[in-house]
């Protein structure tokens, strides 16, 4: 069973660039997993994926030509059915052995053991291991079908289906071609390199020579990560030579690495007078349309130079550079035209046009939504004691840039262009900044809106969407969230928690509900939406690294002041570090369980009904702590409150050791329950500490 490197390659037409890294990893991983499952490869074997614009491939080290034979034990039948009392085989056993091709002479070797309540016969045989030649094509077919491809296509006269037409197939084990047929192609050892720089078809001498052959003769860097790293190294080196920086470029780098096989970086430039256009427009034009990397000065200001990642490396690159400069110029001219044209009409004059823009067929027009945002932003700023006039003005203008030429061409710039146009109209920085920031946070880790006015408009935008879509039954399900409600919920929670803002979430939801006509919202909103928000909050806190038990303890109280949650989590974490924490959490769990069994809510404890020294001591200590605890809660010092409560540990332990809570005398029993209820109220104002008890 000689071991050798295995090579599998599919040579295709250009693959979808944004999916390429994922396709390459999935293809390699599945082939490796299938070979391991057949004992043809080890789980720790070196598995190297390759993904370039026109190929998916993998090499796996030390793959076996065939797997070792293995023992397989199977149950035949109960002994009572198979054998006579003297061990002679009965007819059912002989018939089964004949069907399985087992020689009756093997009967004495059969194992007899209990199977449940009856003794049974078991037969152990040697099963040949899998052969690489026999299974490799099947394994590759399984990997192809398992790829995360939303749509497949057919080509030519065959029945093969893949994301792009496939032209060649390599299946090699060491120097040997493994016979097989995948996607209507027979396996060989020939591939193609770069479309223009390769010497033509390339015969791969052996699997280990695959990468070096493509690099040297095919002018292709086949490994995606290495190709990406090479592009990044060239970009950063050229940017340094230009005394410039690249700003954010990771997403574009991934895409470009999936578009080129032999990357070479060149510098292009455009006329400096284009810089009068907002740089976001120029950046988006270069990145999204042309896949160029803009350059910036030390202050982050756009320069009139950019980097081109070419798939060619001619001796004279002047044609590549001038060609790209010639292509980008009309794009920049379009951006300048849109900007100049849009500024001729103030944002305020565009608002009525939003009446013809449908927000949702059940929620009306964008103009109707603007009215709700204006009212809701005003209410939120009133709660914050902020500039209500500025918030209402920003909310009124926030969507007006949707009917500008620039945003019509580049939807990604909504909000950004609204800010520029508002400043052009003389609206003032506070209003203009709120227009741009009301979409934030757009994604995980995005910056939050700064200032109460911007935060209020951002909250209004997200709460209106959440209430509206929940109110018409468009609730996210599974992985489907077409209206981005999970993102909106996380945005609300982050703004409230991280800014922080002292606002009650349930009151905000109620304010948003009031903005809709009574007949519009046909489904319950407040309760399901708040449950949804708490689930999102739990997810957000787990992502931040908080312990699950501490999150559960804090969220068990269903807090509506989201800004208080981080402090409460910190207080619970500090409490858990105290030596008294475990015993108090267990006692609290016991108290909660006792109180659940009572028919009527306990009142206040009566000192005259206290009998045992232990209950009197607990009552006195709790009363003595109450003013200090009240001060802590008033000052939002949750950590100190829990530290003070930890001092009750000895009194609580003694109470449960010496006092019979469920006394026969009703008044005594009710009074002791009232004492426990008073203790539970104090202990669980920060979090449900019973959730910390295992």
TrEMBL record:
Keywords: Aminoacyl-tRNA synthetase, ATP-binding, Cytoplasm, Ligase, Nucleotide-binding, Protein biosynthesis. GO terms for biological process: arginyl-tRNA aminoacylation; glycyl-tRNA aminoacylation. GO terms for molecular function: arginine-tRNA ligase activity; ATP binding; glycine-tRNA ligase activity. Its main location: cytoplasm. SUPFAM superfamilies: HD-domain/PDEase-like (SSF109604). PANTHER family: GLYCINE--TRNA LIGASE, CHLOROPLASTIC_MITOCHONDRIAL 2 (PTHR30075:SF2), GLYCYL-TRNA SYNTHETASE (PTHR30075). This is Glycine--tRNA ligase beta subunit. It comes from Denitromonas iodatirespirans.
